[in-house]
Amino acid sequence: MFVNSNGYSLGVREDEVVVNDVDLPPWAKKPEDFVRINRMALESEFVSCQLHQWIDLIFGYKQRGPEAVRALNVFHYLTYEGSVNLDSITDPVLREIPETYFIRDPHTFLLTKDFIKAMEAQIQNFGQTPSQLLIEPHPPRSSAMHLCFLPQSPLMFKDQMQQDVIMVLKFPSNSPVTHVAANTLPHLTIPAVVTVTCSRLFAVNRWHNTVGLRGAPGYSLDQAHHLPIEMDPLIANNSGVNKRQITDLVDQSIQINAHCFVVTADNRYILICGFWDKSFRVYSTETGKLTQIVFGHWDVVTCLARSESYIGGDCYIVSGSRDATLLLWYWSGRHHIIGDNPNSSDYPAPRAVLTGHDHEVVCVSVCAELGLVISGAKEGPCLVHTITGDLLRALEGPENCLFPRLISVSSEGHCIIYYERGRFSNFSINGKLLAQMEINDSTRAILLSSDGQNLVTGGDNGVVEVWQACDFKQLYIYPGCDAGIRAMDLSHDQRTLITGMASGSIVAFNIDFNRWHYEHQNRY
User: Fold this and answer.
1) Largest CA distance in the chain
2) What is the pLDDT of residue 240?
3) What's the distance, CA 178 to chain centroid?
4) I want to staple 200 with a disulfide (CB 3.0 to 4.6 A). Which of 132, 246, 247, 401 is the partner?
């Protein structure tokens, strides 16, 4: 809204300056900064703690009467609800009568035709005060930050509890862990961290840390010494590996990576691609058995992605293929199948076909909230489609950013793309390049925090790094691991980061994005 991107002629000011883009204050280098910093201020704890006072002024007991006078909150009488009802003066003849009397206590006004027009102009130009909803003071909002100061708050112990590495879990198989899905919500039947190795051996590792957020009310300190992840007993005891091994043949030319797998939000099913017959398949994590084969592409399926889930577990699944197309599917949480109808589960139809790429699709991300699919082809570029299949735009990276490999998109509308040889770009959803950087690592996994403010990366160097997403400012470097990172995910409370390692283990890190929040650093 601050940029005249269409080049409209908006006129010339008296000082002969052409009216074009909005002039920004010196603290905002670009319009995106202006919006971001204003949002940071408006959504800050400081504003949240004062919000009740604003409600009192606009909707509450300080809107009218003596309290409004004391708060210097008095406006022109015509702006108040009920002071005049123009809709009641509907008779055009009545409007023409020059001397009609209308009573408005405590004064009597002579409403001539000109006066009515003046009232209409006043309301149209200056608006009207909202309805008064409250006649008592609104209670203040409790602040998350204030927990730090409660005498018995678990946050007193946060320094003891905040070692970087919580635990390392080594699987008997030494196969690299190429996919990690942390579906840890307490209401799930099995809160778990599901892992899949390069040899397609999966594990459902139970999550124990569901008593509450570490460092928040309701969290039991008695639980603090317990490790949050328990290895899948069938893997640990080597007793039921047949229930955990996917044996169906994949195409030999497929490189197994994190994009080959999707785990449903309830941890009950794994979707796997890369099969020679151009399908992707659904397997039960309980039994390891094949439950559905989905056809639709003309060549091998190379990548899969899942959107956030709706209530009931429904979500979108996107499949990308060597045939240079993507197909958008609907996963039914009720029936546990691709498609709406269990009677036609053998031949489900895609919701949309997404075209525009000239090469094999290698990475994809889908956001149901924005209704967008962002995908990258082996030799570029990245394309933005709607979930109905319309191609919106191409995201053209800067020079040398030619081969996209990883994509992460936030519901705020920012898209992080990792290209070969350590190059990152941050695009707005309108295709504007907001930031770029180059790092000295071959990155294998990226993810954004739930608010889209922070980016976490890991790669062959075995180092987890945290960045500010808007400008790629480095916030933190975790201690290096003894193997490369292949995959990562965050627990539901955004407090634990789980990485899959090339050595066949997973590492759980403590992570607290508040540590790098400007307000937390400056005030607490």
Assistant:
1) 97
2) 74
3) 23
4) 246
